[in-house]
Structures are given as C-alpha cells and as structure tokens.
Design brief:
385 residues; alpha/beta; Rossmann fold; N-(1-d-carboxylethyl)-l-norvaline Dehydrogenase, domain 2; 2 domains; eight-stranded mixed sheet; 10% strand; binds 1,4-dihydronicotinamide adenine dinucleotide
Length: 385
C-alpha cells in the first residue's frame, strides 16, 4: 500500500512512522526542506534508540526508515492509495492543497485530514470527489498513542469509511468512529477534566496541587489537570477549549476560564516556558497538596461526575457508541477507566443526584444533567460497554 503524508511536522512525522512500521510505502511531503530534514533526523534518533533498547533489529529499523521517501513535490503522491494531511490548522490552506492533490492521485485514492478542530464536511466540500474524503484524528505522539478517531463527513461514502477503518486498524491502532461534531470524542469529553478543575480552583475551594493530588491519588488519573495543562501548554489547551466553546454555539458547559486565559497572556505557558500553574525553575516554591481525603473525594467526585455527564451526553447525541466513547478516553488520554463503565460502577442514579445537586447549588446550564442519565436511572439501566 502506498501512503502519502502531507506535512512533516509533529503529527505528519509520527503518522509516517506508523504507516511505514506497518509495511506501507510512504511519501512524506512538506513545503519546507528543513522540516523534512528535521523529520528524517528525528526518526533516525527514535530508531537508534529502539535498536539500543533491543526492541528492533538494526535491519528492521533500517527498513522502516528506507520505506519513507521525503519530498517537496506533491507529484510524488501519484499512485497513492491513501493520503493523510497534517499541515497548519487553516481551512483555506488545507483546501488549496486538496484541490492540487486531486489532480495528481487517481480517483480511488482516499484523502484524509488529521484536523483537530475543522469540520470534515467543510474540508470535503473543497474536493471534486467529496465522497472520498474522511477525518482520521491521531493523538500526539502518534507512534505511541493507540487511539485514532475516524470521522466520516456527511459526504463520505460507506466504502471509504469501511476501508479507512480497516487500514488504520491494520496499522495496530484502536479505531473509534465519531460523528463530525466539534472536538469529535476525546477533545469534547475531556473538557470538564480541565474546566471543572479550573472552576474549583477559581472558587478557591482548593489549590492546584490539592486538585491534582485528588485526581491522581484518589482517582487514578496519570496526571492531575493542572499538571496536564502545564504539559500540553496553557495557550494550546485554552485555544482548544475556546474553539469547542464557540463551535457549540457558546454552550456554557465548555466555557473557558479566566484563570487560564491570564496565564497564557502572561506567558506562563507551562513546562515549555518554565512556568505555568507550577514554577519549574530549580528550587522554586510551589503549592503543596492538602492531603485531606474527605476534601479530595469531593473534588474528584465533582470533576468525575461532570466527565461522566459529558460522556453520557455524547452518547445521547449519537456522536459515538458507548463502547467507542470508553475506548477513546482510555486510549486517547489514558483515563484509568472508561467514563461510562465508571458511571455503571458509581450507579447511574448516583450520577443524576450529583448533577442535580450541582445544578441546585449554581443554577447554571453548565450543570444540567444529560437526559440519557435521567432516563436510564428511571429504568434502572446500565451502559453497555
Ligand atoms: P506542525 O506545525 O508541527 O507541522 C506542520 C507542518 O506542515 C510543517 O512542517 C509545515 O512546514 C508544513 N506545512 C504548512 N503548510 C503546508 C503546505 N501548504 N503544504 C505542505 N506542508 C505544509 O503541526 P502539527 O502539530 O503536526 O499539526 C498538524 C495538524 O495535525 C493540524 O491540523 C493539527 O490540528 C493536527 N493535530 C495536531 C495534534 C498535536 O498534538 N500537535 C494532535 C492531533 C491533530
């Protein structure tokens, strides 16, 4: 199989590595020579490390590298079966590349985008043959993160959807299917992990270290929300939140937080700038967690129930199946358990009451309980995960 990858940045390079490791012949294209060179060197480094660790034989590492050719000419995509685009997040720029590409590849070539925030329908509309277009959303770093969200646009044909899912699954990925809605599954369902933690912090209920401690130690999450926001970058995380908020027509459930906006404005971007919610300078003073279990449980409960409510509402709106929603969160952001499975454990009635308590306290739309939870609780049902 011949695979073309457009854009040799963080994501494109990772996707090229995944496809080549799965024995595909890969052409990696970028407008910048330097970007291609950087990508080639980065892959060589990764492969050397894998050989040193004994994970790969030298011959295999060489083959993976040899199967990728680096090019600044779109023409080299001729004969591709699948082309995945991973360039700047800009509709006009992407559309232009797709139009040019359609004149090069043959008509049964599937064209896909790794976009995180643009609608797949709007990208598909720039093609002559819109039915061959589809979203394939990898997670960073693509070679390590198991999840890929596959997103058919309303224009996408059934055959293209089926073939794409099969190909990505053959590459060893966990494939979930999502409707073409903002944030797809992961970037939508994960919002309360940050948003509710920020609300708790803004209200002064606890400091960042206590919230992180509660989510990690009591909830089993790998990183606390503030640690994770510092890791992702507060500018990046804020932009994702704002994009989802706007795209959902200003639904208050996704409202961004001033605390995070100010941090980005101040240049406190997190680990990459040396300071975010925490100060990463050596010897810097940082807040300490109050290891108060009762308080910690309250924090965990509030964030978790908001996450469950978001996951349930995602099912309610038919954005994905219950199984795929849980797979997405455990494989895309490494949650310790699927949220719907967690809801079954806590009890659906318990989740409804917890949401209603929050709504009672705040009288904000943000805390409305998803109708699906209420219906299921009334019937004594559980999520089928
Ligand atoms: P990046 O900035 O690391 O790489 C983009 C590359 O595209 C650069 O090498 C640039 O030279 C090249 N490029 C720009 N315009 C081009 C054009 N017209 N033709 C060919 N090459 C062009 O970006 P990154 O982070 O890899 O993101 C790429 C896409 O993947 C975006 O759509 C982004 O939303 C999406 N994405 C990013 C994730 C992340 O965590 N960084 C996760 C999932 C999706």
């Amino acid at each position: 199989m011949k695979v073309g990858v457009i854009g040799s940045g963080t994501m494109g390079s990772g996707i090229a590595q995944v496809a080549s490791t799965a024995n595909c012949e890969v052409v990696l294209y970028d407008v910048k020579d330097e970007a291609l060179e950087k990508s080639r060197q980065a892959l060589a480094k990764v492969m050397n490390r894998l050989v040193e660790k004994g994970k790969y034989e030298q011959a295999k590492a060489d083959e993976i590298q040899d199967r990728i050719s680096y090019s600044t000419r779109l023409n080299d995509f001729k004969g591709s079966d699948l082309v995945i685009e991973a360039i700047v997040e800009n509709l006009e720029v992407k559309s232009k590349v797709f139009q040019e590409l359609e004149g090069i590849v043959n008509e049964n070539c599937i064209i896909a985008s790794n976009t995180s925030s643009l609608s797949i329908a709007s990208l598909a509309a720039s093609l002559e043959q819109a039915e061959r277009f589809i979203g394939v959303h990898f997670f960073n770093p693509a070679p390590l993160m198991k999840l890929v969200e596959v997103i058919p646009a309303i224009q996408t044909s059934e055959e293209v959807l089926k073939k794409t899912k099969q190909t990505i699954a053959d590459w060893g990925k966990v494939v979930v299917e999502a409707k073409d809605t903002p944030g797809f599954i992961v970037n939508k369902v994960a919002r309360p992990f940050y948003g509710e933690a920020l609300r708790i912090y803004e209200e002064g209920m606890a400091n960042v270290a206590t919230i992180d401690w509660a989510m990690k130690e009591l909830g089993g999450f790998r990183m606390g929300p503030f640690q994770l926001m510092d890791f992702i970058g507060n500018d990046v995380n804020y932009t994702v939140t704002e994009t989802v908020f706007k795209a959902f027509y200003y639904d208050s459930r996704y409202k961004p937080a001033f605390a995070q906006k100010r941090l980005s404005e101040a240049g406190y971007l997190g680990k990459k700038s040396g300071r975010g919610y925490y100060n990463y300078a050596e010897g810097a003073l940082n807040p300490e967690a109050e290891q108060d279990e009762k308080k910690g449980r309250k924090i965990l409960d509030r964030i978790l129930v908001m996450l469950i409510n978001e996951a349930a509402d995602t099912l309610h709106l038919n954005i994905a199946s219950a199984v795929d929603i849980d797979l997405a969160m455990t494989n895309g952001v490494n949650y310790p358990k699927g949220l719907l499975a967690w809801a079954n454990e806590l009890g659906i009635q318990y989740c409804v009451e917890a949401m209603d308590d929050l709504f009672e306290e705040y009288h904000e739309e943000r805390y409305r309980c998803s109708p699906i939870l209420r219906k299921m609780a009334a019937k004594g049902e559980r999520f089928e995960v």
